Amino acid sequence: MSAEYDYDLFTIGAGSGGVRASRVAAAHGARVAVAEEYRVGGTCVIRGCVPKKMLVYGAHFAEDLEDAKSFGWTIEGKRFDWKTLRDHVQNDVTRLEGLYGQTLGNHKVTIYNERATITGDHEITLASGKTVTAKYILVATGARPHVPEFPGSEHVITSNEAFHLDELPRRILIAGGGYIANEFAGIFNEFGSKVTIANRSDTILRSYDASLRDRLLQISMVKGISFLFHAEFERIDRQADGSLLVSLTGQEPCEYDAVMVATGRVPNVEGLGLETIGVELGRKGEIVVDAFSKTNVDYVYAVGDVTDRVQLTPVAIREGQAFADSVFGPGEPYAVDHSCVPSAVFSHPPIAAVGLTEGEARNQLGNIKVYQSDFRPMKNVVAGRNERSLYKMIVDAANDRIVGIHMIGPDSPEIMQAAAIAVKAGLTKADFDATVAIHPTMAEELVLFK
Ligand code: NDP
After folding, report:
1. 152, 248, 267, 306: least buried by Cβ within 10 Å?
2. How far is the CA of 180 from the centre of ligand 1 (A)?
3. Quick check: is 230 catalytic?
4. Which domain holds residue 415?
5. Pairing state between β 258-261 and 254-256
6. Does residue 355 contact residue 381 with C-beta atoms inside 8 Å?
7. Cβ < 6 Å from ligand 1: which residues?
8. Structural domain includes residue 353
9. pLDDT digits (tens, 9 = 90+) for 144-182
10. Predicted pLDDT of residue 2
């Protein structure tokens, strides 16, 4: 590799995409450094998917312990202690952060625990003042929560702070109707907080199939979560007793103990020196890249949320891997396929989906077949929990190919991972029909659609 530069690759940001790219590039023989101003691991590991999933597990015990009674168990003196869960989760986050650092170290990647700025062609200056050069620069700085501007917006928290609360709020308002709003609404609600979701539009989880959205809305309301639509912030005032008086459009002012904002995430591009070398940004501030994650500057690449393609960790990881293999590996360059990406919302119950929704399929294909199973999982029947699951399969009528699967119900993300392989592979409804069911399971509904 080039001796002209201090490093073959300098990565800014040690999150999911940056860590994968750095370690793979190093494994291909590149001399790699990575700068991280916060904690190695990035959003997913430190304040996103991983700690969130642990809270989801913790929260679900509320229902499991309740349901246990119907299965004959008596649980005396059950109580929940937020600080115990919070601290256990944070301990594990620290453990994972260490492992990520170790992986980079094992691959001889130099870690700079400080901010890095591009200060010239192939040149990076670290917060300490040290300047280094690199043949390639990878920007993998992720995204941060978007906080709308309005009087009193300084009183809100985001998902970043939600993991560290001293106390659980008795009443919490969550603004936004997307992934984070619905996941945290479920978490706080199970812990006993009174949760209200307020969204600017008239729906939740806009990109998901309408029937699943309706089902989540209905189940969430039964669980005690309130929803306000067409509701945007006018102002928030802190009152003498510490509570927050929140004024939303079309609503009477209402008191809460905490207000959390989950209204999307914006790419972290400020202060990176991108303008110094003329890296092109898009309308939302995202770094514009081609299919190979290359920017308009020949030696600068970007992966993950900062490019605002698909804001999901496994996608960032793939982009990082493809970049490193393509630029430093022995094979031909290759691009990540961003089609047919499965996804999940870890609400209570969770949603999982892959491919086209019914609406999208109708618009794109015209002639489709929709198969649906609306059932009460066996565990819920015994528990006396009147909560139904809904599975949907969308099939292209022209060739019997499955173009979408949508599920809401216990463990649906776990089930979806396997089903998504079939959809990605272009299997047909007949292929599913030819597969014998595993009985009794919820997943068997996928091969029993009539
Ligand atoms: P989402 O994009 O999921 O949802 C944003 C919500 O905020 C929507 O309901 C939207 O309303 C509303 N909104 C958007 N912009 C504004 C604005 N300017 N003012 C007021 N409301 C606004 O964002 P999240 O913050 O929930 O999550 C960010 C991203 O992180 C997700 O898109 C996802 O890619 C990723 N993520 C993935 C998870 C997973 O895989 N399970 C979990 C958490 C996050 P409208 O109804 O108009 O669309």
Report:
1. 152
2. 7
3. no
4. 349-447
5. unpaired
6. no
7. 148, 176-181, 183, 199-201, 203, 206, 262-265, 311-312, 343-346
8. yes
9. 999 999 999 999 999 999 999 999 999 999 999 999 999
10. 63
